[in-house]
Amino acid sequence: MNALHVLVADDEPVSRTVVGAMLKKAGYIVSYAPDGEQAWQRLDGPTAPALALLDWEMPGLQGPEIVERIRNKQTPTPTYVILLTSRDSSADIVRGLRAGADDYVCKPANEDELIARVNVGARVVQLQAALADRVRSLEEALANVKALQTLLPMCAYCKSVRNDQNYWEKVETYFTQHSGVSFTHSYCPNCYDRYVRPELEALDDARAVQDRLKRK
Amino acid sequence: MAPDPALDPAVLDTLRQLTLPGEPDVLTDVLRLFLDEAPKKIRALQAAFDAGDAPQMARLAHSLKGSSGNIGAGALMDVCRRLDELAAAGDLTRIAPLLAALTEEYHRAELEITQLLQTS
User: Fold this and answer.
1) Which residues have C-beta within 8 Å of that of residue A28, sequence separation ≥ 6?
2) Helical H runs in chain B?
3) Which residues of B lie inside 8 Å of A (Cβ-Cβ)?
4) Which ipTM score applies to this complex?
5) Which of A69, A81, A205, B16 has the greatest number of beta carbons closer than 10 A?
6) Residues with Cβ within 8 Å of residue B15, at least 6 apart in sequence
7) Which residues in A21-37 are b (16+ Cβ under 10 Å) and which e?
């Protein structure tokens, strides 16, 4: 498993240090924020951590408020948030989860429980990242298909099209290669009148001339 | 019968085992942080009590409850919890004896911490 980055936000240095040491021992990369405002700055920045452990009560912004802000950002890979709380009444826990927290851990944190819950978070983060990658490559593929449909250079005279390797080829060849369409040749009524009928008539005329010559 | 230790040995063991090779000792770090921080909080609690500021008392007691829990100072944590509950309810009438108990429990913890830091 790649080492994921976890932000620990707690105004209380003892708790912050203990939780951070537990995470480091479990192989995570840890950074710290001593209050809600600084935690939000890190979470709102370009290199937001994959996971965050937020203390419920901090000066500035409280844990649930930060969670709401994260949820309002609507990024494809949002930070997985665990609230750290010494509030253990179920009403408080429900409030934290309703605000958008992914999980909660009661303080003082038990090492095994904390790490087990953070590992669950890490799994979710990795699944989410894989899903976001997949969506991105599908979007790219879709964009290529659209480009193929909308921007196909065609010779105004001979109707050849320029392929992706900058070679000119017949429309039939191009589409057979790019879309699996195969062509069968026929003619439309207009072209029948314009090309086919005159050729057939010319053929008949020639045959009539030959017959006349033979009879002579 | 010897009194219960102020700090839970199981919690101290857990903290000891958090130290990674080549890194500073976690237990020592945490205990020093606690000694640095707890007396300030206790003085601030007394000041908030004198000023009749219940919300501030609740905040401080809550925070001190968290740090005492982290080092396994169970009795200190219990006093903080009761202070937190009373102050959060705005009831300052029964606080004075709790503040005395707080100082008492802190000193018991401080003594053990100082011994631990000397031996480690």
Assistant:
1) A3, A4, A5, A6, A51, A118
2) 9-16, 26-50, 54-70, 74-88, 95-119
3) 14-15, 17-20, 23, 26, 29-30, 33-34, 37, 59, 62-63, 65-67, 69-71
4) 0.89
5) A81
6) A18, A21, B26, B27, B30, B71
7) bbbbbbebebebbbebe
Provide the token pair at A193.
């009148």
Closest among A93, A71, A90, A89 to A80, alpha carbons compared: A71
How far A79 CA sits from the closest chain B CA (Å)?
25
Please answer whether residues A103 and A121 qualify as being in contact, where contact means their C-beta atoms are separated by less than 8 angstroms. Answer: yes
Partner residue opposite B63 with nearest CB, options A12, A18, A24: A12
Q: Which amino acid is at B69?
A: G
**Hey, how many other C-beta atoms are within 10 angstroms of the C-beta on B15?**
25
Query: Are B65 and A111 a contacting pair at CB < 8 A?
Result: no
Each residue of B38-53: pLDDT tens digit?
999 999 999 999 999 9
* Tens-digit pLDDT profile for residues B70-83: 999 999 999 999 99
Q: Give this prediction's pTM.
A: 0.75
